[in-house]
Amino acid sequence: MKTDLPIGILGDGQLALMLGEAAESQGIDFLGFGADPDSSFAVRYPNRFTQGSLTDRTALNEFARRCSVLTLENEFIPEPLLRSVVADAGVPIVPDPDSYRYFQDKISQRIFFEEHDIPGPKWLKLENSRPPFTFPFVVKAAQGGYDGYGVRIVANETEFQEALLQFRFAEGREILIEEKVAIVREFAQGVLLDGRGNVVFLPLVETIQRNGTCELALSRSTLPSDEVSKIANLVKSSLQKLAKTRLQGLFNFEFFYTQSGSVLINEGAPRPHNSQHLTIDASSISQFGLLMKYLAEGKLQTREIEAAPSVMINLLGKSKGSVYSLTLPAIPEGIQVFPKLYLKKECRPGRKMGHLNLVDPSGKNDLLEIGEKILKEYQL
Ligand code: ADP
């Protein structure tokens, strides 16, 4: 690795922005690459930004040659392209293409989890347009979905056919069908893996998902503590199995806790993740800081990262316009308030514009109740 060169971030959205900020605060040099000169990263770091398409091999190669190591903030670069850039430019990428490839596609993820004996929902790859399970069940686009855009729970034949149309099954797109899990709670946990069996665990968080989007993430679950310990152990044992594979990089894994008491893996992402944003203000090092430090130093420093009692509230746009500002309702005294806007040029209803972290050092407040109130009342 040419260690005197900056770390290269592929992608220019809010995750790239926060990777950059975490690097900057640790004195680590970095550059970013993406298509949009109005993006979060480009607006914040114009002098560190290279404009180019994430599918342009020449531009990617040129960028890669200016970097010591690459990382990425989304799963949208085709894996063969990523592999060729690493080979052509002679620059490593974390996650490496072998780790990354499973997570570009919900079907290959499911196969990967099964191969490593990690329990998940019953699933199959759709072969024809007849419903393979009794209704209701879940239809997922194998590729390209995010924030629930590629997921539909269908209750009858009409909805099933609508989902096939929406996910362009007739045009050859692959579709995954899953049993509809009786979810009691959803959890997420990040891990940093070095591909040699070593692992850093990020905090286990409870996520509140509605309409396919994570609205809140809590560092303390709303379930009784003995139940949470059981869940945390099951999640950890699944993640330990993944640590024994050759996966390398920062990952986030989402889990369902079901009515029958099992913990099923939903999906993974080979990058920083929205559900771990509370580590920015509630932990000794954030998910972003952890990854950049690892890339700069090449070794894992800690085993476990904890989070103080905290909640993260995703701030989606509620209005439309290029001039916008965040207004929050009153928040009880003693709670630390950390709003973060992603510098997007235009606010639009439903667009992810930022997040708000609340940290409660006393541990005495009901952060779910406070989070729900803010979610309803904030203006943006
Ligand atoms: P995305 O990749 O778009 O985030 P996910 O696969 O994470 O999509 O699904 C989004 C949400 O849809 C989940 O957080 C969960 O609430 C719900 N969901 C997904 N799969 C299932 C399932 N098999 N059974 C019940 N609900 C599901």
Structural overview:
The chain is of the alpha+beta class. The chain has 11 helices and 16 strands. An 8-stranded antiparallel sheet has the order 13-12-9-10-11-14-16-15. A 4-stranded parallel sheet has the order 3-2-1-4, with helices on both faces. Helix 3 packs across helix 4. The model has no long low-confidence stretch (mean pLDDT 95). Bound molecules: adenosine-5'-diphosphate (ADP). Adenosine-5'-diphosphate (ADP) is lined by residues 121, 138, 140, 145-151, 178, 180-181, 183, 186, 209, 212, 254, 266-267.
State the major sheet.
Answer: 8 strands, antiparallel
CATH architecture classification of the largest domain: 2-Layer Sandwich
Shape: globular
Strand order of the largest sheet: 13-12-9-10-11-14-16-15
| Poorly predicted parts | none
Report the mean per-residue pLDDT as an integer: 95
Strand content: 25-35%
What Rg is obtained from the alpha carbons, in whole angstroms? 20 Å
> What is the ordering of alpha helices and beta strands?
EHEHEHEHHHEEEHEEEEHEEHHEEEH
User: What is the fold named in CATH at topology level of the largest domain?
Assistant: D-amino Acid Aminotransferase, Chain A, domain 1
The helix content, as a percent range, equals 25-40%
